[in-house]
Specification:
Distance between the termini: 106 Å
Radius of gyration: 33 Å
Strand content: under 5%
Number of strands: 0
């Protein structure tokens, strides 16, 4: 049985790329077949849905947002990454190790604790 309805011109009016048309209609036919295993012609139904404009292609789904869809507020600026100096690596290493040593040093004994009698 030849499939001459819907016409290819009607299909390409909705989805201008042969590739996108093939992929979108095949994916929709598979969805129909999974949902209803007894469906007689899932591909025919998916092609009819394409001509009716019911199928959104992958590229339409991930299309860039329009100006109306963009948020009005600007996103917060990210902090600048730290600048590493290649001219004085020894100084940078010394600073990093001294900072680590300061963090790892045990706290000094607190002289304000009362002496035991």
């Amino acid at each position: 049985m030849p499939m001459n309805k819907p016409a290819i011109d009607d299909l390409l009016a909705q989805i201008p790329s042969y590739y996108e048309l093939t992929v979108a209609s095949a994916l929709r036919a598979r969805e129909i077949k999974i949902g209803n295993r007894e469906h007689p012609q899932p591909l025919q139904t998916s092609l009819e849905e394409v001509t009716e404009g019911k199928i959104e292609t992958y590229y339409e789904a991930i299309a860039a947002p329009t100006q109306e869809e963009l948020p009005l507020e600007a996103p917060a600026a990210l902090p600048a990454p730290p600048v590493l100096s290649l001219e004085a690596p020894a100084e940078a290493i010394a600073e990093a190790t001294s900072a680590q040593a300061d963090e790892a040093a045990p706290a000094e004994a607190d002289d304000t604790t009362p002496a035991e009698e």
